[in-house]
Amino acid sequence: MKKILLSLFGIGLLFGCAANDGVVRTEKGTFIVSAGSSGISDLSDMKAESTEEASSFCENRGQVLQVVRLRGTEPPYYLTHLPEVEIEFMCSDRQGSDTIASSR
After folding, report:
1. pTM of the full predicted structure?
2. Contact (CB, 8 A) for 47 and 72
3. Of the candidates 41, 2, 3, 1, the residue with the CA atom closest to the CA atom of residue 20
4. What is the Cα gyration radius of the chain?
C-alpha cells in the first residue's frame, strides 16, 4: 500500500497542476498575471489561460487588452526550473485602440 501511495505522490509531483496568481497591479500602472506549475505542464496552455484571464479582466472594465510584455520559461524543465508564464499588460479604451489601428 505504501508503494502505491508513494507512486501516486510521485506522479502528482511530476504532472502537477498549474496555479494562477490572479491579476496584480504594478507600480508602473500596468497589470501582471502569472501562472506557474508544480510539475510538467504545457507552457502554451498556461500562456493561453493567462492571456484569457488578462483579456477578461480588461473586458470587465469595458476596455481591451494591450500586452506590454510576455515572458515564459523555456525547457528543459527540472526541479528548480519549472514552467512559468508572466504577462504584463494594460487595458486600453476600445475607441483608442480602433483609432490606432485605423491610422496605420
Report:
1. 0.67
2. yes
3. 41
4. 18
Domain holding 79, by residue range, is 2-102
Q: How is residue 77 annotated by DSSP?
A: P
Residue type, 45: D
How confident is the model over 41-86, as pLDDT tens digits? Answer: 788 899 999 999 999 999 999 999 999 999 998 888 788 888 899 9
Q: By three-state DSSP, how is residue 90 classified? A: strand
From CA 74, how far away is CA 67, in angstroms rounded?
A: 20
Mean pLDDT, the chain, as a whole number? Answer: 77
The 10 Å Cβ neighbour count of residue 8 is 10
Give the Cα separation of 77 and 56 in Å (integer): 30
Number of domains in the chain: 1
Q: Say which residues have a Cβ less than 8 Å from residue 104's Cβ, sequence separation at least 6.
A: none
- Rounded CA-CA distance 7/13 in Å is 10
Spatial distance between the Cα atoms of 104 and 83, rounded to a whole number of angstroms: 36
